[in-house]
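Review box. Two proteins, two foldings.
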Amino acid sequence: MRFTYLIFLEDHEIFTLVDDLEASEGNDVNFYSWLGLEPTATEEDINRAYRKLSLAVHPDKNPDAKSKEKFARLGRIKTILRNPEERKRYDFFLKNGVPKWRGTGYYYSRYRPGLGTVLIGLLVLISFLHYIILWINYFQEKNRIRHYIKESREIAWGKRMKKQQTKKRVFVNDLSFMVEGDHVFFLADDGGEYVLDEETVVRPKITDVIVFVLPGWFYNNIKKQFSVKKTNSLVNSEYEKEGFSSDDDRNEVVDNLRNKTRRRRGGNKRQNSKLKS
């Protein structure tokens, strides 16, 4: 099996030459006919035909833009026809036809994608998988809420699930819930009560995938870093103008700058509200 695989890899060059020759000279042209030979030609005939055709397609004597490709192709064809084993393989494909499917390795080597195409393909694949994961998490979260609602009601109302209007606190998986009529509330450690409703689970959108989220994340972080640098620059300028006797004085300036920023933002909001009114 290993031997067959190695031979198949060697056939890739033959397949490539067949495709290129037919694309350049026509579908009815093969290695022999291009050289003006018969399949029974001897090695001497091949050498003679090669020398004759090489003069016609040589880049130095032919202004054709594709002359270099033709000359290189001619050299490879001559090498195959002069090699008994490779010529035998070519004669086999010439008689039986070149296979339509030549393996993924052949097509990858012939139509190898560029770096940009690979990166775009990976980005699309990652985004697609991320989108699927978002939907899986969405349904899992809805099922989790349904489970807690069902378990809480069973504990509060009994197995017959007879609804009661009174409040009853129950525990499910060490989590605290309050059942009140049709509603089930999650009791958080901070004392807050949050109603359990599967409809509150946010449906994933295509804009939630990583290809859209990452640029926004980078933008916000860059904006945050710029804001911090701007604040530090203002503090340093105040430091140079006033001079501080202690760290407390410096902290006071920082607080004042922050308050000014808040007032400006608040002033903008008030101004916007006046414009709207």
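Next protein.
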Amino acid sequence: FSKVLLIFMNIFHSFTGSWGFSIILLTVLLRVGLYPLNAWSMKSMHRMKEIAPLVSEIQARYKKDPKKIQLETMKLYKAKKVNPISGCFPLLIQMPFLIGMFNLLKNAFVLRGAPFIPGWIDNLTSPDVLFSWETPIIFFGTSFHILPVLLGFAMYLQQKFMSTAPKDKSLLTDQQKQQAMMGKFMTIFFTFMFYNLPSGLNIYWMSSMTLSALQQWLTNKRLDKVVVPAVEVLDAPDKKRHRKR
């Protein structure tokens, strides 16, 4: 798989002359190619945000019956064609490419010692160095790498745009609270995980997260204009049922 990625990188390198820009262009190509799959997930997550008030209403109505809450919530998801785990798909789709890029930077001879930004990213197959010191510090070693920090910020932006949580915190469902906590955890986890990994891998993942956030923002902006709020659609029948009772 990494060999296929290298073929495309060689093509980009032939007219950019930079392996760093080749990684970024490869990321753009992958994000565009995977957009149809990601778009489905983005739309489903947008619907999750729309029906959040209804989920909160279900939780308030059956707060003494957790099983009833789960049953009614799943019925609502099914009726509105929403997948509650759709937010996991974009990350899962990216994992094979992330592993492929890691193997590429590890094994490709042409990338060894390849610079990108002199004085900062001097070798794409090793961590970037913003500044260094003499006395080693646990985990950090003798140098500070800024790319993983920028990567963490890019992941934060992605989580912000992908969030299905309503602006009104009182309408947050238990699932949305858990998703928010998991999103923060994953951002911190990836920042530390990537800290001592090759700068080329950081550039790839940071570019991917930034493009994902941009795609999500554009998708949300488009859907906000054309999608009828789920609350208006479901509230009316719900009120009729209460009147009959």
